[in-house]
Amino acid sequence: MKEILNYEKLIEVINNQKLFLLYVSNPTCGVCKADFPKIKKIAEKENIKSYKIDATKVKKAVGQLSLFSVPAVLLFYEKKEIHRQARIIDFEELKFRIEQIKLIQL
Fold this sequence. Notes:
There is one protein chain. It contains four helices and five strands, in the order βαβαβαββα. The protein has helices at 7-16, 30-45, 59-64, 91-105; strands at 2-3, 19-25, 49-54, 72-77, 80-86. A five-stranded mixed beta sheet has the order 1-3-2-4-5, covered by helices on one side. The two termini are 25 Å apart. The relative contact order is 0.22.
């Protein structure tokens, strides 16, 4: 999972990646630390590009995405956010949404 270090890079990723997962966390968040390996494993298993943002370092991105709590998982498809989960991540729901998008791509 690659780290996005500034807002401009996030915009570049949104504009250039057809499908990707974005994980937003905070280094002082215990739930974020516990959820990160699970999210990373899902992204790898589903063979989907994935990126992470540290909410304390890229505040402009957090504001522009209207994120009010962490952890947050956002799924983007064709430059649009199509799925979002924050605070409590339902991993099965996330897998289901990824599979839905993969079916659309066929």
